[in-house]
Fold each of these.
Amino acid sequence: MGLIYDFASDVDLSSLRQSVEFGSILKHVDDNKKAVTHSTAAFPLAEPDLIPEDIAYDPKTLRFFVSSVRQSKIIAIDGAGDSHDFAKTNWPVLALRMDSWRRILWAATGWLPQCEHCNQADEDKSALLEFDLDSGALRQRIDSPWS
């Protein structure tokens, strides 16, 4: 996770400095400072103002799904990197969860001030959306009882 806090100089931990376990922790934290460089880009996102929040993958169709906070939508991206709008919502789309066996894409959505078109009357409202993975149709909307 990239934690690089300086535990060695923390005075609250000074009584632990001589222990073997503390030395092991310091080595682990040092290892966290090293860059991870074995990844490669899978595809570019064509929309520079998308503000992606989450990503989900469907192993059946080999498509990625990316949620957008700013544009309140989900885009689908195929193996060639071609993208299209999968679903548009009233509020920013946050977390995604794939259920490829049941052919469902779950999306958490809610009002945020960063939304381009959100209605101020919807402030603090949220919902869980169930989409048909193959058609993009909204199957179910579960509004938060705390909204």
Note: Residues 20-32 form the longest helix (13 residues).
Amino acid sequence: MTRWTTFALIFALAASEAGAQPKLQVAEGTQFDFGKIFRGAIMERDLTLKSTGTDTLILGKIDASCGCTGAISSAERIAPGGAGTLHITFNSKNFVGPIHKTVTVHSNAIDAQATLIEFKAEVIDEINLNPSSVFFQGAVVKKPTTVVIKVTNNGMIPLAFTGYRTQLKGLVLTLPEGSIPPGGSSEIRAEFTPQEANPMLSEAIFVTTNNIRQPEVFIQVFGGVKDAKPQ
């Protein structure tokens, strides 16, 4: 073997080493939208992780931006030309309105060792209350104060309220009679007749419904109660 042949072989090996580079491609792209979803729904999405380099792709830790989001890969090592699946779940139970979450896939990819995947959604309450909390400011002992709460049924089936519970003495709710059709609205009337002064109210009302995703609606109660003025 001549000196030039040896040099050419070393150069070829070096070039081969340099060309052996792992790469990661998310086939469907790194951004997606779940669209409008009802609160409480658990959403799922599968993404394809492709090994597009010339060396084995090794997947490491997968981080989610919050506990509401889960992500797991079908494989830890993907040969060149192969593919794996990234399964993403999102639990919407504790959210209302627009959301934006991320999943970060760590790997040995030469061009991006941390691949950021983003998704968004708009979480809709099937049972919308306006206002969502009750404020009895300036209530007076033994004098009734009434607050009206508008209820809108954003769900797909008729909504019925079946009862309520609260530890706040003197509070009575009048629930809608019958059911509220999808897209319809009604009212809950909260009448509070306090029996004693309380400078700071902080209580809760739990209203039960026939909705399987929201079987109970939580209403926070705030405010204060003053003694009646002597006659």
Note: The chain has two domains: 20-124, 127-226.
